Amino acid sequence: MGTESTPLDAATDDVLILVRRARTQLAEAAVGRHHAGALDHLDDSARIDLLRELEQLVGAVSATQARLAADLDASVRGARAERGVPAEARGAGVAAQVALARRVSPVRGSQLLGLGKVLVHEMPHTRAALASGAMSEWRATLLARESACLTLADRRAFDVRMCADPARFDGWGDRRLIAEARALTARLDQEAVVRRNARATADRRVTIRPVPDVMTQVTALLPVAHGVAVYGALTRRADELRSQGDDRTRGQIMADTLVERVTGRARAEEVPVGVQIIMTDRALLDGADDPAWVPGHGVVRAQWARELVARAHRHGSVVGNWMLRLFTGPDGSELVAMDSRARRAPSGLARFITARDRTCRTPWCDAPIRHIDHVLDHAAGGPTSADNLQGLCERCNYAKQAPGWSAATVPGHASGGGAHAVRTRTPSGHSYLSRAPQPMGVPPPDAEPDPLQRLREQGYSVDIVRPDPDDPRVWRRAA
Q1: C-alpha–C-alpha distance, residues 185 and 192, integer Å
Q2: Which terminus of the chain is more solvent-facing, meaning fewer CB atoms within 10 Å of its CB: N or C?
Q3: What is the DSSP string of 1-19?
Q4: End-to-end CA distance of the chain
């Protein structure tokens, strides 16, 4: 994924030239290519001074980015208002452009755009503290978050009291800053705080994210009474089993009990395996070390995947007996295409796109795929084929529908060999290139022949394979 040249390359704006010159010189100094290694001859005192100066520069840059984001939003909304676009649709896609420009996820881009608008229009003293280097962008975000429930007048009063004199919070840690902000918010409008707390219940949710060593972290955001009750129940169960001689740690018992009570199984090890695993035939049948891919988690070792399915099979907890094999092209750089005449991608083709793209195809967005989107709109004649489909998250797909956005597959990639590639063009004229990740475990040029072919020659039906219950390294023909 990358960014292509933009109309700004020909700009003569003095500020842009100054920024680019400073950026280049700083980057060269950082790697020792500027002024014969200007950083190499500093003493420790000078290094500390320079670290502080650079931190102040970061604050000034963040304040400038906040203003540019707010100005972009105002400009786009004004232009769309003149064209008669309804008010609720005038800001569509602006946050996505900010995210692409700053090389962050769409969610983060939306947060940065919101912060910029708040700092420019509602909290000028906070913006000034950020611009002077007295406050970081993160701390400005904390203040904006804690005052979000206030009216405009109260928020401006909050801004004056908190940030008119940056020396007031000099030396504070984040916890104290948050505590002081919450106390001031409550003094300005206690009822607003109560209303916000009541609305927070609507935000309860459960999320999952991968962590190292083939683990996942499932997080529940609950009202405090519910959260305390859940944790208390798990704690009591752990203490009960430990007192009966269970040799698992307290944390292990609590984790296993959570799995058992949520899934309804007597033991955590007996939970049905309904997880998708994408792996090469070499990893599946020959014990190769090609990495496997678990949608929603990421890369896992092939041995772990084989042992997981084998162990679940021994417990009789495998959901389904079929395994879907996806083939790569001759050069191994992309998955073989599939197509359909329907507007909505059939389930098989949708699974194929999800396996190929893994996460949202928008640059710097790694959110789960929620929509299978036509690169060239179906209404404009775009076919429902693997070449013309990409996986997007909900937010990115909706952003792409805003006026001025367009996308096209890149000739020479999707159809002419190589990874599937899409170029997206934003209303400002900037374009961004997205390439599908390379399939897992692409064999080297001197790889051995296809192990599936060898099994076919031995009389096996290799379309359905399952693990040997006694040896997870061996896969046999299904009965």
Answers
A1: 9
A2: C
A3: -EE---GGGG---HHHHHH
A4: 45
Give the predicted TM-score (pTM) of the model: 0.71
How many whole angstroms separate alpha carbon 286 and alpha carbon 308? 17
Tokens of 58: 């970061």
Return the H-helix or E-strand segment holding 216: strand 215-221
| The two structure tokens encoding residue 133 | 């280097």
Place of tokens 């329907």: 342
Residue with tokens 């902000």: 181
Rounded to the nearest 10 degrees, how much is the dihedral formed by the CA atoms of 337, 341, 346, 348? -30
Pairwise CA distance, residues 234 & 256, whole Å: 9
pLDDT band at 354 (very low <50, low <70, confident <90, very high): confident
* Whole-angstrom distance, CA of residue 244 vs CA of residue 267: 17
- Distance of alpha carbon 140 from alpha carbon 159, whole angstroms: 11
Per the listing, tokens 């990893």 go with: 283
406-425 tens-digit pLDDT: 999 987 654 444 578 999 99
Contact at 8 Å (CB) between 119 and 63?
A: yes
Percent helix, strand, coil in the chain, to 5, is: 50, 15, 35
Token digits of residue 111:
């947060």
Please report how the helices 174-188 and 137-146 are oriented relative to each other, as an axis angle in degrees rounded to 10: 30
Q: CA-CA distance, 25 to 14, in Å (whole number)?
A: 17
Whole-angstrom distance, CA of residue 382 vs CA of residue 369: 20
